[in-house]
């Protein structure tokens, strides 16, 4: 059974940084696009970032562009989300995802990945 396991969440002050990691349980997903979604309390789940299988194409939500960076290490079957200049509105449960194909730049809102992790909590507060 394919599993995605997130780690690295926690409590951070506004303006701080945090790096999330997501490891896949199988190399089956090594050729899949990977990404991150998030869901804040009382809000719908939203797209954050995506990266294609080669790591050369990335997409970001406008709300995180310039502050977050997605990357991957296929040798370790791991995808990362480096978050900087964090704001209280970044507080959410962050989910790692995988899908056979990366979204197009103009259709990230409709991307519906096949595989989802359990999520890791990120809280930005002073």
If you had to describe this structure to a student in words, what would you say it looks like?
- The protein has 126 residues and is mostly beta strands.
- It contains no helices and 11 strands.
- Strands 2, 4, 5, 6, 9, 10 and 11 form a 7-stranded mixed sheet that branches. Strands 1-3-8-7 form a 4-stranded antiparallel sheet, with no helix packed on it.
Supply database-style keywords.
seven-stranded mixed β-sheet, 126 residues, four-stranded antiparallel β-sheet, mainly beta, 0% helix
The arrangement of helices and strands along the chain is: EEEEEEEEEEE
Main beta-sheet annotation: 7 strands, mixed
Query: From the alpha-carbon coordinates, what is the Rg to the nearest angstrom?
Result: 13 Å
Separate helix tally: 0
Structural class: mainly beta
Question: N-to-C terminal Cα separation, in Å?
Answer: 40 Å
Low-confidence stretches: none
Q: Could you tell me the strand content as a percent range?
A: over 45%
Please estimate the helix content.
Answer: under 10%
According to DSSP, the number of beta strands is 11
Mean pLDDT score: 95
Shape: globular
